[in-house]
Structure formats: structure tokens, C-alpha cells
Amino acid sequence: MYQEFPNKMFKAVVADRTSFKTQWDESRLTDPIALQNLIDAEAAAVEGGRAFVRPSGTEDILRLYVEAKKEADVQRLADKI
Predict the structure, then answer these.
(1) pTM flag (> 0.85)
(2) What's the count of helices (H) and strands (E) in the chain, helices before strands?
(3) Are 46 and 77 in contact (CB under 8 A)?
């Protein structure tokens, strides 16, 4: 059965949100790929870790979604990303 893990949304102010590109479902960055690689590595290092970043459609901010099996790991993962 499905078990929901602790999760949280964050936001980060950026100079130009249009420099961040995602695939069609906004679950992965296609540019900058170095940031997606960092997200993948950090999420894999946390039990049940999952994270994605997407640019806001209206503001120069990035929205970051993070989840992990343990509540404490959610903030730690977000801080690393």
C-alpha cells in the first residue's frame, strides 16, 4: 500500500527563472543539468529521498519539493540542494 512520507515545499529566489528548464511533467530539470545531477545524488543518499525543482510560472523563484522517510532528512536534503 501507499505510504506518504514527510514532505515540504521550499522556494529560492533566482535572478532569472527562465534559465531553468524542465521536462514536460516538471519532475526533472533539463537545464542546468549540474543542478539536476546534484538533486539526484543528494536524494539517493537519503532513505526514501525524492526531490525536484521547478521554476515558478509568475515569479523569479524556484519551487523545491522534498520528501524523505524521516522528517529530519527532509530539511537536511533541502539544505544540501
Answers:
(1) yes
(2) 2, 5
(3) yes
Selection from 11, 59, 50 nearest residue 27 by Cα: 50
Determine the Cα–Cα distance for residues 37 and 14; give it in Å rounded to an integer: 19
Q: What is the mean pLDDT of the chain?
A: 95
The one-letter amino acid at 53? V
Nearest to 76 by CA among 54, 48, 37: 48
In total, the chain counts a number of residues equal to 81
What are 42-80's pLDDT values in tens digits? Answer: 999 999 999 999 999 999 999 999 999 999 999 999 999
Can you give the pLDDT at residue 50? 95
Query: By the 8 A CB rule, do 27 and 40 touch?
Result: no
Contact between 81 and 53 under an 8 Å Cβ cutoff? The reply is yes
